[in-house]
Amino acid sequence: MRRPCDVRESVLLMIPYVKQVKDELLPQLSIRSLDPYEPVEVVFVPKPWRVVGAGNYAAVLLHPAEPDRVVKIYAEGRPGLPDEIQVYRKLGCHPAYSECYYADDTFLVLKRLTGVTLYECLRRGIRIPERVITDIDKALDYARKQGLNPHDVHGKNVMMIDGRGAVLDVSDFLKDEHCAMWDDFKRMYNLFYKPLLLRVTVPIPNPLLNMLRKGYRIIRKRGSS
């Protein structure tokens, strides 16, 4: 049975961790967002915290004493945190998604998903089985059944965990407009990756991946206009 994210029930369990975030991390952490279409820049992180991810709105950080939790902190002026809380409430507990343990005005405490993004799989030459693609398809269908609209689902926002697929970022799942990113990723997977790289994988250089990513964004913008 699906269990909704109940922030109130999590408060007492999260008190020590949240205190660390508020007393040790937030006062010293420096994050800035220079371009809404590029990942935020983490300028300074106090030890022993470390960055484990960065999106266009927020950074995700880990404390080594709490390996099963992460804190997602939004950059100043970036929207989306209230929407993301609502998305996690709708998703509840599902094996392909994280879970919201606690929420505040500027950050979320989330269950950590430990794996490799599909973007990193391409960059490092790690094989992406078809089952991973199928798992992500099923997870997105599940989200739609909860009244959500999967959006901004691309190689950096989906992950392979022990050979299974997971969705890493759900912050835009309340947006109304159609998003074709995942359909386009699957199309490229079926047209090029399966016949050429599924059996014999080779690393794709990061500059080439970045060029493809930016080129895709330009093509999508022109197409939408």
From TrEMBL:
GO terms of molecular function: protein serine/threonine kinase activity
Alphabetical UniProt keywords: Kinase, Serine/threonine-protein kinase, Transferase
Organism: Paenibacillus oceani
Listed name of the protein: Serine/threonine protein kinase
Lineage: Bacteria, Bacillati, Bacillota, Bacilli, Bacillales
InterPro entries referenced in this protein's UniProt entry, alphabetically: Kinase-like_dom_sf, Meiotic_Drive_Suppr_Kinase
